[in-house]
User: Fold these one by one.
Assistant:
Number 1:
Amino acid sequence: MDLRSLDNVDPEDIGSNTSAEPSVGALIERRFGRRAALRGLVGVGAIAAFGNELMGSSALAQPRGPSSLTFEEVPHGLDQTHHVPTGYDAEVVIRWGDPVVAGAPAFDPANQTAAAQEKQFGYNCDFVDVHPLPAGSTANDRFLLVVNHEYTDPGLMFSGLGAGRDVNLKVNEEQAKVEIAAHGGSVVEIVRAGQSWKVVPDSKFARRITGTTPMRISGPAAGHDKLKTSADAAGRDVLGMFNNCAGGSTPWGTWLTCEENFNFYFGSADAAKLPEAASYKRYGISKAAYGWGRYVDRFNLDKEPNEPFRFGWVVEIDPYDPSSTPIKRTALGRFKHEGCTYALAKDGRVVFYSGDDERFEYLYKFVTTKPWNRQDRAANRDLLDEGTLYVARFGDDGKIEWLPLVQGQGPLTAENGFATQADVVINARLAGDLLKATPMDRPEDVETNPVNGRTYVMLTNNTRRTEQQVNRANPVARNAHGHVIEITPKDGDHAATEGAWTIFIVGGKPGIDPAARYHRQTSDNGWLSCVDNCTFDSKGRIWIATDGAPTAAGIADGLYGADTAGYGRGLTRCFFQAPTGAEVCGPLVSPDDSTVFLAIQHPGEDAGSTYDQPSTRWPDFKDNMPPRPSVIAITKKGGGPIGS
Ligand code: FEO
Ligand code: CA
Ligand code: CA
């Protein structure tokens, strides 16, 4: 998520964890020396996993070979359109305003209505996934494409609002309702046509989920007093989902979509005076960044103080049943979920990893109580309601501990404000504080490599980390470019409460940023900044999308591929460059490796760029069309696996 559109809040002030844990930088320095710590040479995991192929600001070894990725790199740059390597094509699959459900009117951005938007593709696409059609098929030519719509940028959506601070607060009532309808998610059916992917019009599976779609709340927090409002005295039903950033899926074929910066939607004249002030503060809830509270009471904390407790959850949706009710699964905790991706434990239980994307926030995982049932899909219907939520502590010895967030265990007692498991999941951050979890540099996507079984954590940046707050897992003070941690679960079992970790890469430009660390043969185009989402191809190579490239230096966000094993480990290579103002989201490599799907989010979201005078009109480049967030498909000319 880019925060330009939320100019009325201080994007540097979204962090709210005052925990001092664990500032082990001084300890490491004493034991190992600071330069060694920064180079990741401390600890077993670091040395073993890096081998000799990586370099830091000083090279560690001779080059031993190139990447397995042989595409011609896209040169770093920044302009109004996107770029793919020579020999590849990129096509728009679906754009903001395109029809999703039957009866959707043609997109008329100058006269957009909430009624139209409810049937059309929403704004700011982020998470992207595909579910095969028919279910269970391995044919690779027909899918349900599921996409999140994270947030709205009214300055680029509506004429006449202009740019600058507070533009979000200027919307009229109909515009606010368009925004609410442009949030949520979309399900569309896509089919392969030659090398292209086409949306099937009027598919029976097509669905728009918006900020007003009825949803059910399940798990420990369902029915808790804090979830009760004047519209829902039972605390079990809620309208819509907001700020759905990344997501995931389940082995039984449902879509997990994650509410991230939900705090921006709710505001009070003085939140510090309300009874839930301490929790609001820990979750960054004070002034609304959107202007909806003037028209819809539930966004006004002074009228509905409990509404924000109904957001910040993982939502499970069955994409195969457009009439199904989305369910907020509270057992997985309430925080700013970037995504939620699964790995299987050895005994068939399912493990879901999720980062809390804010400065100094934590990494979590949830382990289901029961294994999933491969024979009976319906038997997995409520598997996500029972399990154990853990928070991560990264040790200075290269080990990771997963600490159970279970009421009654350790400090999670009634005396400390946790009388029930509902209290724990509702205020998961506060529970993590008591367990002394490790505050991280903004955990974004967390994904497990299907080939090597290791889990990769994208830590996007944290410019507020001081020298004193540096630790081995977050080794860069004023971390502007982010880094990637690789976790190896003990005995290869994702349900294990221990594991080892190492740093895979550190972002920034080698030679300029002292902490930057990649394979020594990473080119001048291959370095990256602000890792956000990632995915893997069938060979186990990682594909990393960025959000926050240094545009002042003329570099756009992009997609980078790298080997995770062998000589090319850590050799990131630039595969895609986004149009100006955009971040790159969703990366997904199709199961047959033939296609990379990307969500191009907030094109044209540059300083001063407006609907009337945008910095780009990507992807249509028509005078009457604003920039349009879009899902694109990248394929190799003539077909074949992408990358090589
Ligand atoms: Fe919505 Fe953490 O990015
Ligand atoms: Ca981001
Ligand atoms: Ca993100």
Number 2:
Amino acid sequence: MHDDIANILVSEEQIEVRVKELGVKILERGNENIVMVILLKGALVFAADLFRAMPVKLEIECLNVSSYHGGMESSGKVEFLDQCLPDFTGKRVVVVDDIFDTGLTMQEVCREISSRGAQSVESCVLLEKEGCRTVEMKPDYVGYVIGNEFVVGYGLDYAGRYRNLPYVGVLRPEAV
Ligand code: PRP
């Protein structure tokens, strides 16, 4: 698996430091009634580390959404794969995702959660792709801003694989 990586963009050590900082930043805005929402599947790894850097009584929900369908470009359509979404009445919701690319996924999810009675909705992403945003919203918490490259690892996949790499890297062309 490691042989398929051309270069590492964000190392394991960098991720560890930044994720802890993000946890602190989220709690600086308050620590009551927090519901952390994991966007499956990409945010799984990031969320697991982030939540353990937040020593407060928070709730966790998962939403199954997809827009890439295993490929390298967004389909431009966000699909909610869950049959029913939770009720977020009165909660401070923080949506967690691995990457903010066009921003379509995060925008649609935040809209949907707002319409379910949330008191507030914030967004937290490990990575933001520079110059790719096509929506008005900007993420509230960003780990690292990266260039317009297709990356894998730390939750991010290519054709369903590489999510378990402990760092974020660029695939060798031969691996695609
Ligand atoms: C990826 C990623 C984000 C979204 C970002 O999800 O995990 O959720 O795309 O792209 P956007 O900002 O252009 O909307 P994907 O559809 O690949 O599903 P996955 O998380 O299961 O890999």
Number 3:
Amino acid sequence: MSATVVVGLQWGDEGKGKIIDSLCEGFDAVARFNGGSNAGHTVVVGGNKFAFHLLPSGVLQGKKLLIGNGVVVDPEILLKELDEVASLNLTPDLLVSDRAHLTLGPHKFRDRLEEGRRGAAAVGTTMRGISPTFADRALRAGVRAGDLLDDESLKSAFETFASLNRALISGVYGEDGDAIVKDSMDRVKELAPRLRQYVGDVSKAANDLLDRKGKLLLEGAQGYYLDIDYGTYPYVTATHTTASYAPAGIGIPSQRIEEVIGVIKAYCTRVGSGPFITEMGGQAEEALRRKGNEYGATTGRPRRIGWLDAAATRYAAKASGVTSLALTKVDVLGGLDRVSVCDGYIDGSSLRMEPPSTISALRRCKPHYLEFEGWPDLSPEAWRKLGEGGISALPKNALEFARSVEELVGVRVRYVSYGPDRIDLKELK
Ligand code: IMP
Ligand code: MG
């Protein structure tokens, strides 16, 4: 045993990066198992803000870093992040799975073309080429990190990749695919000598570490409701975001997972299109967006904001085997008279307790709310000062809110976070 998974139970941006950075002291390695550079994991240390898209959030703690086969890797972004951390005098001990697929120029180009083609029905992707990379993987036309280690295998991967991407870009989208495909292959060859040193067998490394009684933290990207099956399809990302994908995306047995920490914000946000039952709208939303700095870490887009959906969280926590919750950004809700939490969905004359699987049914549903008394609006310094007095020194109604969430979701709230820095976090006993 001794692998812990941290996943988001909403639409991403729950504060996983911060929770991982705060918790990873007791771990030997931090691994990413899904998504790609669409993720934006923000970590704040000593007032300095870092946003990582591919490097696991343990990077600033000098942990061993693993990027599993379940991740799609954009070599340009990976090397850029490595340069950034090098400028902080950190030399990450990084291993990228030889089975991880590479996101290349034509994937990013196709992401834009496909979103454009869909017009009003666009998913609102991050334009990072994620779904075309996963599509090429499924079409058996991908280029994998391990191909960089073997000229013959790179040559043959390039052949299938080039022929499919040329055909799609010119045949489907009517653009000239030749140049972009050729440029991307030249670029991979140029970057290969630098990338090779990081590529290897992540599954073996992770299993060896666990056999030696090492502790592994598995970092999920995005959130439960962006999962390709369990999210609000088709307004989802291109892969799995659930805790149960963690072992598959890194190459360890599922029995190794001892703990699953589900991260939720005290309210909900989502970027991109798709149904959002508890969306607030109006001035309340705008005020929270500014206060909580709710703008995409990857795209800068304003995030849509809604009340906490405890029914959706309960469903996600149950299916993910969540053993404890981390509740973030309770400070941001401070200053409201009343705080709403959705505990079910009104569908005509019936009350549903689980989110429906289709977006048309979701659009029909109205949230059923419970209301809680608010807590004061305090400065970040005031929150920190209160936190220094221990968990029970935090505002009473904020703690009661945490207890109610615990009851509604059916899983204990173990951590309460009330500021962006790694120290603004307390364990709820
Ligand atoms: P894609 O993953 O770029 O294909 O985007 C699909 C959907 O997932 C869009 O609604 C994106 O905004 C959303 N998404 C992808 N990654 C993240 C993330 O890390 N945080 C929040 N939303 C994300
Ligand atoms: Mg994010």
Number 4:
Amino acid sequence: MMNRESTRPAQKSSEKAVQRCIEPKCAASYGIRERIYVCPRCNGPLEIECRLEAPEDAATLSKTWEARLASPDARDRSGVWRYRELLPFEEGVSSVTLAEGNTPVYDAPRSAQYCGLLALRLKHQGCNPTGSFKDTGMTTAVTQAVLLGAHTVACASTGNTAASLAAYAARANLQCVILVPRGQITAAKLAQSMDYGAVICEIEGNFDDCMRLMQELGDDPAIYVANSINPFRIEGQKTVAFELMQQCRWRVPDQIVVPGGNMGNSSALGKGFGELLGLGLIERLPKISIVQAEGAAPLARLFAGLDSARGVASLPDSIVPVENPQTLATAIKIGSPVSWKKALREVLKSGGQILTVSEQEIADAKAMIGRDGIGCEPASATTVAGIRKLVMAGHIGPEESVVAVLTGHVLKDPDYVSQYHRGTLSLGFVASGATTTAQPIAGAFRNAPKQVAVMKSAILECLQRKK
Ligand code: F0G
């Protein structure tokens, strides 16, 4: 798949960046305008290796980025292109942007207490233009698609990648085709893709089937794949580390926790922090931990069986997929993550953990984040649920500085929220053969609407009861 012979010479010495195979035994490099997604030599994952045009600028980078916060230039208004010195594009590139990034970091005192921490900060990537962190990667992937002269961009998706790609493709006037598992993505996400004019192919299967199909389609020269297997996606997404550090006044948090699905986000976060460390802009890495839903946790299973003391040297060659992944957090209902190797490498390098949380834990954590006045979609809430478990297990100390990355907006899945608060949420799945089993989720922090008479006294009584 997507393993076509490379037609161009490898790196030109004048180029700012190269694409490099991450397999240490191979480490082949390719030019930045090669249209490849995996290493043509060994099929390994590719990543972009960028060097500063003027290396002496490293020390002044943070000052340059700080000054851009007050600049009206469209590139500076983007929380991705603001960090363009570390992106694999030439200075004058015409970027496809929706002013992505610029997402807030919130204090979340109730969630902190719930986790057993003194403080907890939430970096809300759901505040991006299409409501998820995917926008930070699509601005660079679609910019690259335009530079390559592509006419059609494509992705497999559990909903957010699709909505984001559809929007950026519309901005660039490109055709967009998305493959989604029929009946398994939320109405809100699907509605976004319809609005942005994408060709929507609903596939009878799950996300992993869509992803396999996408890898076959990637062989077609007319189609440019924008899933996170594409290293240009990761380049945009890595800037979350730069923006977060700027917001933290360059004081590195002890722990950063992210949800894990196809594993692009965790890979990108680790890459971003690694680059800051390499440039001397930070003095240590935060521990990066990944949280998966119990029913869709291939990487957590792999991690549990690893000798993590051996670190990056013990990276396995393959992962055992989860055949029939199950979770109500549909964004991360993925059994065979494409970027598992990069993500695992980042976790091992940083000394973090990979763990699972139950459906009940996700639902309650989501409601608790809500009590802080901050909405998010279910997949994002795995972070707070996971942090609570990591504190209980002693992997995170109560006084450590912890940042959870929220990945999607609460309005991405309003049905889930409503069902939780009304007490009707349940996970239905085909257990064996054709028997469907329902696993009810109790709304421990339920807050259902009440039917109240048209009378002032009835409303006051209602308030009284709530106290
Ligand atoms: N959170 C949300 C809201 C997501 O949409 C996703 C992935 C993840 C977390 C996991 O991130 O895949 O980088 O590990 N959504 C993809 C999609 C798969 O198609 O929208 P990851």
